[in-house]
Description:
Structural class: alpha+beta
Oligomer: single chain
Largest sheet: 2 strands, antiparallel
Shape: globular
Strand order of the largest sheet: 1-2
Number of strands: 4
Amino acid sequence: MHDSTSKPIVVSRGKIEWEETQRKIHSLKAILAERMVLTQGFIGSNPNGLTTTLGREGSDFSAAIFAACLDAKSLTIWKDVAGVMNADPKRLPAAVLFEELPFKEAAR
Length: 108
């Protein structure tokens, strides 16, 4: 698929353009009602439609953005770590594990 929904996450100056992103993701609801949609994480587009990346942990961030924009009841991400932390424990040994993190907060 190569249309306005092929890169629904819009990024400008390193920030998510929430209104445009939500509009594009909402346009997928009819398709989602009929079938499963498989998408990649980590990439989006700038306001001109050029491909850009979401940076470190961008795939998880993409999932949280989709969940927030689609008003999902939950989001599950399988990882090779114990959970979501406030920092990279390899760089900051005192990193704290969040016991719970609503995806609407993770998407911000």
